[in-house]
Amino acid sequence: MPRRLLASGFALSVLCLLSINGCPPSDGATDDTPAPSNSNSNANANANDNTGRGGSATSPRAEPIVADAPPAAPDEPAPPPMLAATALLNEIRFLPRDGESAFAELKAPTGASLANLKLVNEAGGEFVVPNGAKTDDAGIAIVVFDGRTVVNEDTISAAPADFLNPVSGSLTLLDVAGAALDRIAWGPEQAEAARLSTGGGAGPEDPTVGMTIGRYPQSLVIGWEGWTSFAPPQATPGLPNPNPGAAVLLPLSGFTVEAGEVQLSWYPVENADTYKLQVATDADFASVVIDVMTDTSVTTQTLAEGTYHWRVQAIDADGIAADWSPVNVLYVATVVDTSATDDADTSKPRGRAQGRGMVTRVNLDAHAPGGAFPSISQRKDSPLLLLESDKTAAGHAWDGPHVTCDTNDPADKMNCTLASTQMINHFYGGDLTQDRIGYDAHHADAAGPETDLNFNEGNWPDKPLRFALGAPVGYTTPAVYSYASLWTALTGAIDDDRPMLLVIVAGAGTHSIAAHGYEIDTTVVPHKYSIIVNDPWNHGGASARRGPMEFYALANRLVRIYIVPKGVAGKKQEKEVTTDTDNDGVFDFDEKSRFGTLWDGRAVGDVPSQDSDKDCLHDKIDIQRSVLDEKHGYAIKLNQKKGDGKARGNPPGNASPGGRRPELLMDTDGGGLPDGVEDWNLDGKAQTDKGESDPYERSDDPRKITGTRLRTKDRDDPPNHNVQTIKTEYTLQTAAGGKLTGRVKFTYNARYEFQASSAPPQCPEPREIVWQFNEVMGEAEVEGEFVCFGEKGLAIFLRDKGEPFRASASGIQTDPCLGGGPVTESELIHSGAGQFFPEMTDALGVVSNAFFPTMNRVQWKTKHRYSSLPTERNFILEWDLVMTPR
Does 65 reside within a domain? Predict the structure, then answer.
């Protein structure tokens, strides 16, 4: 054999041996791992990726990572017609790329003059639109903050160049009279801010350079609710905004699932009415196997083993289609196995002893509590109260843990970062819930408890990971890696028993997953490299979706890589999160850390800790109604766009501070009626047909209370019989702070019949004596307030205002022996002090025969025996009171 061939054969043998024993990453394809073409099913992980899939038996190719190209801006739909006097903000770029300028786009009728409109930023800085500025034929004009002062009709150059805050700011549009026409905000710590990502993997604190926020094309709603975010290539300065499209598709590109019924889903597009789904067997969609319309963002399709490409197109209510989403590649296999393969040689990095024709998998299951890496879907998962949610269905309610993930529920769909953090926290021995992690991330966003928990908002992992692990977790970006060095970094972390949190980007959307293993498959050519992940997006499931992601597809869409450092420990959750000491439905953590309500079960006077504001409504009822009230509920306004949201003090946004705390206010609206008086049956529902009024509207509080109380003492102890009656007539009216003022009139009558027990000499026989007292009438001015007697309900306490009425009753004695003569009763002191009206509510919440509520009228008519002595069977109180508006 020629010497040259012998040398070549020896070199090849050495190379193979080095590969088997874990040689360093190769910069090129070996003879047995040729670079594949894009036609190979394992090669093309998405339609925009043209990178080869070659590499050594242990590593991908050492080429720069080429991120997927984001979709180009779609065709802009025609803007909707606008009223002649209307002008709105339309699109904002606040963080421009190098060579670009920040801008604010305005939307108004075609050719409308914009002169003297004013833009005001969060710091109070002002820019007045100069004369000559007007909208173009599409109703659009743009103010470019480029440091110049030039007006060219629909294009206005403005100074200063830093007018828009690049991190956290707001912009308000004022008309010529100074009235607000529109407002939008962005970034952390801004009330009612636009979301900066259409997915859950990114938060407001770190926007993408060059991105914009803008209105949906058909949106004319003032404020943040009609806004979305656009990736830099989708920005359209000076042009109508495009319809936003679907961005992040799930399963993520490169994921492998089992054949059969496969769930395909995506982050919902808020202005979409329907979606078009296409699945093809080729990247160019020449061979489409599924082409369907669906009105939801979750669908199940039957797929056989193979490689598929799929995409989604959002379509609005007018039939205008957005651009197609980025294309995902989906691998469908008969069996998906993510269990670790045997590798007994611990002297080498695990997974590196890889030869041809083998599949090697490494994961962290053996190092996790319970023998499996934690698997949890993204969802609200504790009894902490989510005030932004209006869901009440069992298992998915605002006030309890969700049993499974609902990717259409804003309480679940943006929790991917929190769930991925939770899985890593549990891997390290912690037990945090997603709600508790979300509380740490958001409770400082705004004053009040309204936005404490995560709701419809993405999160960068930095803050959640730092809280969950007790140490900062830094991140890197794909820009610092080649494919080979990134593979080495990811697999090296797994070999070192360290999981990772990865953030994926697609278009304007982001998504977070937890990575805990890898797979090298040399049974195929080219070799296939995969990272084993738990994706918390799993509609209808309680666990995460676990599976391998093809490495190149993953690398091309990575935006951040968080590798957990050594020496961390999972944080344990406070027991108060799942403890309700006073059994009022508000758990101790909420009461102590969020609402400031009583929690320890100890009564204050007659009022239990379940009722912190002493309005006779349990704290949970106060909170629940403020969230779900049909006219004023915080969550009803936020989600259903109904009512005014003022139950908690201000129209709600996604970060608006609370200004009213019904759970701490006896009279929330300050109109004079305590909340428990406005809600007689204490059920937290508005029932005007039962005499109830609105606890959030003070104008309906003024009331008058009129009626009588008849106190009868009929003591029958033969031969003695005493009858005493006091009739009291009330005329009261409500005042601020639950107070009452008014007058009382009373009438006193008495007759005593008794047998003389001893007789004077002239009257030797026992005889019946009668004292008949003259009627006594009087009146007094009184004041008082509504008082809660715990479970018994509300009552009224009255006291004299000023000097009480005092009188003595006089009368005539009739004695068969001694004849008649004057008699005097002990001094009578009428005083409102200590006078309690009967409980005004039925403790069981059911109207009794004594309680007659009708529209704008409540009547109490009761007869109450308050002595059990045999001789006082007729010692009773009779009430007949009516409360009506005044």
Answer: no
**Section 287-298 average pLDDT:** 97
Q: What is the pLDDT of residue 65?
A: 75
Count, residues in the chain = 886
Q: Which residues have C-beta within 8 Å of that of residue 365, sequence separation ≥ 6?
A: 339, 340, 371, 372, 373, 516, 517
> Do 639 and 781 fall into the same domain?
no
pLDDT at position 769 is 87
Beta-carbon contacts of residue 375 (< 8 Å; ≥ 6 apart):
423, 534, 543, 544, 546
Q: Give the whole-angstrom CA distance, residue 763 versus residue 521.
A: 125
More confident residue, 130 or 81: 130
The token pair at 146 is 């480029």
Residue with token string 């001789």: 871
Cα of first residue to Cα of last residue in the chain, in angstroms, is 116
Enter the DSSP assignment of 878: E
Question: Average pLDDT in the 456-464 region?
Answer: 93
One domain for residues 367 and 493: yes
Residue 356's pLDDT band (boundaries 50, 70, 90)?
A: low
In a domain, 391, yes or no: yes
Type and span of the H or E element at 535: strand 528-535
Question: Which range among 405-414, 420-429, 665-674, 849-858 shows the weakest confidence by mean pLDDT?
Answer: 849-858
507 vs 505: which has the higher pLDDT = 505
The pLDDT value recorded for residue 607 is 65
The CATH code of the domain that includes 499 is: 3.90.70.10
Three-state SS at 701: coil
**Which pLDDT score, from 0 to 100, does residue 429 have?**
97
- What is the C-alpha to C-alpha distance for residues 269 and 607, in angstroms, rounded to an integer? 48
Q: Of 543, 563, 583, which closes a domain?
A: 563
Q: Give CA–CA dist 792/311, Å, rounded.
A: 61
Among 48-57, 376-385, 828-837, name the most confident range.
Answer: 376-385
Are residue 394 and residue 508 in the same domain, yes or no?
yes
Please name every residue paired with 859 in a beta bridge, in sequence order, or none if there are none: 852, 882
pLDDT tens, 193-230? 888 888 888 877 778 899 999 998 888 878 777 888 88
- Got the DSSP string for 797-830? EEEESSSPPEEEEEEEEE-TTT--EEEEEEEEE-
- Alpha helix (H) residue ranges in 722-844: none
Structure tokens given for 278: 């296409």
Phi first, then psi, for residue 674 (nearest 5°) are -60, 155
* pLDDT value of residue 850: 60
Q: Is residue 881 part of a domain?
A: yes
The first and second tokens of residue 34, run together, are: 């040729």
Distance CA 500, CA 494 (A): 8
pLDDT digits (tens, 9 = 90+) for 561-590: 999 999 999 999 999 999 999 999 999 999
Instruction: Report the C-alpha gap between 665 and 647 in whole angstroms.
Output: 12
Tell me which H or E stretch contains 359.
strand 359-363
Tell whether 375 and 292 lie within a shared domain.
no
Does 694 reside within a domain?
no
With DSSP H G I counted as helix, E B as strand and the rest as coil, what are the percentages for the chain, rounded to 5?
15, 30, 50
Same domain, 548 and 581: no
Residues 104 and 218 in one domain: yes
Q: Are residues 230 and 256 in the same domain?
A: no
Question: In this structure, are 558 and 582 located in the same domain?
Answer: no
Q: What is the mean pLDDT of the chain?
A: 83
Higher per-residue pLDDT: 793 or 131: 131
DSSP string, 258-324: ESEEEEEEEPPPTTEEEEEEEEESSTTSSSEEEEEEESSSEEEEEE-SEEEEEEEEEEETTS-EEEE
Q: Containing domain of residue 288, as a range?
A: 251-333
Q: How far is the C-alpha of 746 from the C-alpha of 744, rounded, in Å?
A: 7
Q: Could you tell me the pLDDT band of residue 687, with boundaries at 50, 70 and 90?
A: confident
Number of domains in the chain: 5
Place of tokens 């109380």: 709
- HSE of 534, CA atoms in CB hemisphere, 13 A: 30
